[in-house]
Amino acid sequence: MYRSPKAQGLIPYASLILLLSPLSLADVGTGAYYNPPYLPTECYGTDTSQFPANNLFAAAGEGIWDNGASCGREYLVRCLSAAAPNACIDGQTIQVMIVDYVDGLNSSPSQNGTTMILSSNAFAMIADQSAAEINIEFQQV
Ligand SMILES: *[C@@H]1O[C@H](CO)[C@@H](O)[C@H](O)[C@H]1NC(C)=O
């Protein structure tokens, strides 16, 4: 029997929005951080002019690298939770640009295998750096 796409999609979509509010179409993943020296190696080589002016950037983990298509993408990111208690800074959302791939980093990430590796400045805006890994909600801008 035919059911209209609208009727089928309505209830699951509405409950998703409630769950993920305020980033209504966001994904959930994990985040770590890395320290200088910073180069945008896998995206832009040694061209440091590619870093965003506000210096809020990140390297893509395996899950969002997208074969390099993620270079230059911007994401809204917030901290959801962490193993370390009270590590998230409540109510803080940052916008970061992807400038590298995890394999290109000059310094080892605070945790391996995360969705996104934030610059230490970006990480510090949403969480305490005593946490090596945080659970994040992120949405492409
Ligand atoms: C991540 O993996 C590298 C290479 O295996 C290892 O040297 C490093 O200690 C690991 N980092 C963490 C935080 O486990």
Describe this structure in words.
- The chain is of the alpha/beta class and 141 residues long.
- The chain has one domain (26-140): Barwin-like endoglucanases (Beta Barrel).
- It is built from 4 helices and 6 strands, in the order αβαβαβββαβ.
- Strands 1-5-2-4-3-6 form a 6-stranded mixed beta barrel.
- The radius of gyration is 17 Å and the shape is globular.
- The mean pLDDT is 89.
- It binds 2-acetamido-2-deoxy-beta-D-glucopyranose (NAG).
- Residues 108, 111-112 line the site of 2-acetamido-2-deoxy-beta-D-glucopyranose (NAG).
In short:
The protein has 141 residues and is of the alpha/beta class.
Secondary-structure blueprint:
Layout: H1 5-20, E1 27-34, H2 41-44, E2 57-60, H3 62-65, E3 74-82, E4 93-101, E5 116-119, H4 120-126, E6 134-140
Parallel strand pairs: 1-5, 2-4
Antiparallel strand pairs: 1-6, 2-5, 3-4, 3-6
2-acetamido-2-deoxy-beta-D-glucopyranose binds next to loops.
Order of SSEs: HEHEHEEEHE
What share of the residues lie within helices?
10-25%
At the first level of CATH, the class is Mainly Beta
Q: Into which percentage range does the β-strand content fall? A: 25-35%
Shape type: globular
Distance between the termini: 38 Å
Report the count of strand segments.
Answer: 6
Instruction: Please tell me the overall pLDDT.
Output: 89
Tell me which ligands are bound: 2-acetamido-2-deoxy-beta-D-glucopyranose
Structural class: alpha/beta
CATH fold group: Barwin-like endoglucanases
**CATH homology group:** RlpA-like domain
**Rg, Cα atoms, Å:** 17 Å
**Main sheet overview:** 6 strands, mixed, barrel
As for the number of domains, it is 1
CATH architecture: Beta Barrel
Low-confidence stretches: none
